[in-house]
Amino acid sequence: MPAKAEDILKGFKLNWMNLRDAETGRILWQATDDLSVPGKEHEARVPKRLLKCKSVSREINFSSSEQMNQFRLEQKVLLKGRCLEEWYFDFGFVIPNSTNTWQSLIEAAPESQMMPASLLSGHVIVETKFFDDDLLVSTSKVRLFYV
Description:
With 147 residues, the protein is mainly beta. Helices cover 8% and strands 59% of the residues. The strands form 2 sheets. It has a 5-stranded mixed β-sheet. A 4-stranded antiparallel β-sheet has the order 2-1-4-7. The N and C termini lie far apart (37 Å).
């Protein structure tokens, strides 16, 4: 890993995250675990009703000791290793020694394409790649359980 990526990773922390029904603003799930830590598979237990939302708002709060010129995420939703969806999110410039809150909107697939929670639970992994422009800083994996 390049030294700059190591410095960014060492000074980066995901403080908290929540998922809301974007239509009502109601928080459906929240966590304070640092799900950005690479090298291990994290687990998240999220409510089944998230799958019924037309759109979900994801809010993350993170701290960074290092400046990033173009902070961005690439996410893949994998079902038993097969990519179902891919999302790209751009945050932009990150001030060194700052704490930031970032809200993103995720549109659901049409209801006819949605799979039931019973088929998905424990078999879905969200793989997130953290970048500063084209520099890969970290890759984290979170296995989802629908409860």
